[in-house]
Amino acid sequence: MKKLFHSTTVLASLVLLTSLFISCSKKTELKPVSFKQLEVKKDNVTVCVDPRTEILLIASRLAEVSFFANHDMDSDAYVNGIDKIMEKQKNHEFIKFLKSMTKNYKGGIYQLLTLSKYISEDFTEINFTKKTVPAEIEALCKNLDTKKFITLLNDFVNASNLSRVWLLYESFMKANLFDVSDFYDKYPNVTRWISEYFFDSSTKQNFTVHVSPIMNYYHILTPYYTSDGVNNFFICQSPGLNKVNNFSDINLAITMCESFYITYLREHYESFKNYIEKMMNDWAVKNNYTEKMQDFNYIGYATDWISYVTIINYIEKFSPEDSKELYISSIESSLPVEDLISLKDVFKYYDENRADYPTMESFLNNYLADYLAKLN
Q1: Cα gap 272→315, rounded to integer Å
Q2: Same domain, 123 and 167
């Protein structure tokens, strides 16, 4: 009788433990969400509305992240509609988490946009941990509780019924896609120039453009990255940008230059550190800029300035003859340090010696680093 009682007790305990395990598993199980893919693809340019990026943009607006909270597109039909539909979600735990996550963050907004590519398409996984945060988003996600982030994000997407909202605005988003795609068709030289000027013929480049009115008439780069031998550029852009702010092919080409340089300088900063910091410190003294600068600031400013020097090559090759001088003069006048203007001759040397320097990276590593070191 004791044996029977003992066996029954053990069996009951096993059943209880099993039920508890199943219950706990169900509590942590995330519900996959599917969205219809919206994109226009031509050659190596894909204009799209990526659900992961768009939902982070929507959440950022709800969390009142400064860049997305109040802007010139508040009257836009899509922005207005999203605001009304999502009003009840302002107190969702994910929005509170996002507010806390970005509260003391002082880096570029591009890191928030870059984060989207690490989220699975069904919103159930994030493919890095607290110990393996990618360098390109480290400033934003250094101590990120990834499990909590993806759990709350998944619940936010489901609780908001965003997949149905997606269907509601599908025609609106498609119209924006075709509008932006036409803009890229108008200036095919931009992506062609990036491919030919920065890389050699053996590599392939893909350009992806996420379109959203929440971008507030701006376009923001994310650092380019190489995957399976392909160089990938990802830009977030407002659909009305080219119409309202006279956005041109030169602006677009500068943005893509910045995408290249911000990745390169992050990986090779030590080789250019002395020159960049001396240049930046001279500029800061000249302009009474007293705010303490960190490496991120140096890289950010250096990225902008070297992109402006580089774009002179694009202007010389593709701008109308009667406009070239004006465009180049405008670029040169926007450079804050005279030393930067002299660098245009250095990049001209690169263009004339591609047999020795087949890629921009080989030129920067083997020529420019030594050239700048001698100046110091």
Answers
A1: 26
A2: yes
Q: How far apart are CA 303 and CA 297, in angstroms?
A: 10
Residues 73 and 172 in one domain: yes
Residues 198 and 268 in one domain: no
Task: Work out the number of other CB atoms within 10 angstroms of the CB of residue 131.
Answer: 6
Q: How far is it, in rounded angstroms, from Cα 12 to Cα 71? A: 61
Q: Which domain holds residue 316?
A: 248-375
Q: Is the dihedral of CA 137, 139, 141, 143 positive or negative?
A: positive
Whether residues 296 and 158 fall in one domain: no
β-sheet bridge partners, residue 47: 40, 209
- 223: pLDDT confidence band, cut at 50, 70 and 90? very high
**Do 216 and 257 lie in a common domain?**
no
Which pLDDT does position 244 carry in this prediction? 63
Q: Dihedral of CA 61/62/64/70: which sign?
A: positive
Determine, yes or no, domain membership for 175. Answer: yes
Helix (H, G, I), strand (E, B) or coil at 34: coil
Torsion over CA: 183, 188, 189, 194 (sign): positive
Residues 162, 159: Cα–Cα separation, whole Å: 8
- Would you tell me how many other CB atoms lie within 10 Å of the CB of residue 177? 20
pTM score, two decimals? 0.85
The per-residue pLDDT for range 100-155, each reduced to its tens digit, is 998 877 767 889 899 999 999 999 999 999 889 998 898 899 889 999 999 999 99
How many domains would you assign to the chain?
2
